[in-house]
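Internal tracking record. Fields below are filled automatically when a chain is submitted to the structure queue. Please do not edit lines marked as system-generated. If the sequence contains nonstandard residues, flag them in the REMARKS field before resubmitting.
Queue: standard
Priority: normal
Entity type: single polypeptide chain
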Amino acid sequence: MPRQVDHASRRRIIAEAVCHLADARGLEGVTLRDVAARAQVSMGTVQRCFRTKEEMLVFALEYIGERISDRMQARLVRSPAQSAGTALGHAATEISLLSEEHRAEARVWLAFVAQAAVNKALAKTLKANYTILENAFTRLISEADDNANHALPLDAQHEARTLLALADGLTTHVLIGHLTPQAAQDVLHAHLSRLWERSARPPHTT
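SYSTEM-GENERATED OUTPUT FOLLOWS
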């Protein structure tokens, strides 16, 4: 009996090959032939898994986005008793990709972001990823603000968007060497500290 092919597993292997090549060369250096060679499969296998190169790139972007999101969720699950504010800090740190072990992932992510500026399919996937992260941040900020019972409630969605943009920017600054990972971490922590300080201020009276 012929061995049954795990189609989903093969697609993930191909996505890993795309990410490796994107890290080494940027997305412009990703070809179907090179992806097949890196994944140790035939060109025909790649073409059976993905009808076009764009479809392959979209899947690879979804794959890396899910990997980052899953890692963020796993970190939150490991400390279920933590406050929402602490959880927010952990989540923001995780998606900022500041550590050395995530440097390759950061390069690949930014390669996709650059390509998404001129590719609608990739842009659509990125927007979906950012929406998921924004919703998670909004929930954590709202929960932390409610628990603190502050006199001035935060605009949770606005603050979530600000934090997401900051985390994304820090990824770039570390990657090009403008900031060290520790300096970027300090910026992130300072922002979160100011966020809770602002929300704790009493209303101004005259």
